[in-house]
Amino acid sequence: MPPGLLLSTAAGMILVACTGYTALDVSWIADNKVFGEGAWFAGGLGQILLRNVGAALVLYSGVVTLGLTTLIAGGILALYVGATVSLGVHSVGVAQLLADVIWYAPLEFGGLVLAATAGLQPTSGAVRQVLLDKGRISLTSLYRDVAASLRTVALALALITVAAVIESTLISLRSP
Fold this sequence. Notes:
Blueprint: H1 3-23, H2 45-60, H3 68-92, H4 94-101, H5 105-132, H6 139-174
Helix pairs in contact: 1-3, 1-5, 2-3, 2-5, 2-6, 3-4, 3-5, 5-6
């Protein structure tokens, strides 16, 4: 995996997440401190895996769309992450939010960044081949880039799975 692609994907997602963080109107939180534990907040391992693996696979779908779906889904996901962090910070505070998510959120976000990187790898490889190496795109180079992207998405899914196990375990330990 090209380090520049990973770093630029991470930087882009973090930048968009910061935009999502600042864009959320949190003025209503002070008047509505009770959020409850509805179905949206259910913490079973299966539900967590379904949500996060689904998001990772949508990010990876850029492999077949020349990166377009990865860019769109990555932007939307990063906005959602930023808005969610803003909601957490403004409802329970930074210290409590960090205490609640520090053990799994970095793995989860890292896995999603890796999935987005994997979704961009074949297109990035083709662009590199044509522009930087002044070569033609061949089936061999395309195969190499898709194979590399599969290794990257496998690592992403492994991180997401570990994060889901940690998250669901922490939720079950906090539940009455």
